């Protein structure tokens, strides 16, 4: 805010120099280059044996186990829907909600577990294509259910979908918990 002179007129303040985005030679400063150089000094690539030991110690979580857990969770939601409402339409709706998550998830798992050893660009492209297939199939299943299933309970569909989708996060938490338990158990020996 400009300062006021005794007669009430605004007086210009001295302009503060703006922080420079360039070094004195006119080049852009890159503070990250130094950080990258510092990190590169501490980075040591693994040998083939070390990588094998690391893979054996931390095996990947099978997508098929996650899909199976989602299917079980969907069946549990359908059973709860039967216990709470006693209506067959609600059970069918819950099963449809579970199928909307499980079937596309199985397609993605099938697409991603084929052809190992491909280059990283191919793996990323394959993931993007199968993820798109997963989304299209899920939307198509929802549209078909809305048109073909009489007395569809959207609450049951949504509840089953949410529970089945939460299995992904639970699988990651469970995997981390198992690793921590194994690490603690190995430390006790």
Can you put this structure into words, describing what you see?
With 189 residues, this protein is mainly alpha-helical. It has a domain at 61-188. It is 71% helix and 2% strand. The chain has helices spanning 31-42, 48-57, 63-85, 88-113, 120-148, 154-188, and strands at 3-4, 10-11. Helix 3 (63-85) crosses helix 6 and helix 4 (88-113) crosses helix 6. The chain is extended, with a radius of gyration of 28 Å. The model has no long low-confidence stretch (mean pLDDT 81).
Largest sheet: 2 strands, antiparallel
Taken from the alpha-carbon principal axes, the silhouette is extended
Distance between the termini: 69 Å
Assembly state here? single chain
Q: What's the pLDDT, averaged over the residues?
A: 81
What is the N-to-C order of secondary-structure elements (H for helix, E for strand)?
EEHHHHHH
Structural class: mainly alpha
The number of helical runs is: 6
Strand order of the largest sheet: 1-2
Topology of this protein?
Elements: E1 3-4, E2 10-11, H1 31-42, H2 48-57, H3 63-85, H4 88-113, H5 120-148, H6 154-188
Antiparallel strand pairs: 1-2
Characteristics:
189 residues; mainly alpha; 71% helix; extended
Structure in a nutshell:
The protein has 189 residues and is mainly alpha-helical. The protein has a domain at 61-188. It is built from six helices and two strands.
């Amino acid at each position: 805010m400009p300062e006021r002179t005794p007669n009430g007129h605004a007086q210009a303040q001295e302009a503060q120099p703006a922080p420079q985005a360039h070094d004195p030679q006119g080049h852009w400063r890159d503070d990250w280059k130094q950080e990258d150089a510092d990190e590169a000094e501490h980075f040591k690539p693994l040998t083939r044996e070390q990588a094998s030991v690391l893979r054996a110690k931390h095996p990947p979580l099978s997508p098929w186990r996650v899909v199976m857990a989602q299917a079980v969770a969907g069946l549990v939601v359908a059973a709860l829907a039967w216990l709470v409402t006693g209506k067959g339409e609600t059970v069918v709706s819950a099963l449809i909600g579970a199928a909307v998550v499980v079937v596309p998830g199985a397609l993605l798992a099938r697409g991603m577990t084929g052809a190992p050893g491909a280059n990283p660009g191919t793996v990323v492209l394959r993931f993007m294509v199968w993820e798109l297939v997963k989304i299209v199939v899920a939307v198509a299943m929802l549209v078909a259910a809305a048109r073909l299933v009489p007395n569809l309970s959207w609450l049951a569909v949504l509840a089953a979908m949410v529970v089945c989708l939460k299995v992904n996060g639970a699988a990651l938490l469970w995997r981390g918990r198992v690793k921590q338990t194994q690490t603690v158990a190995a430390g006790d020996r």
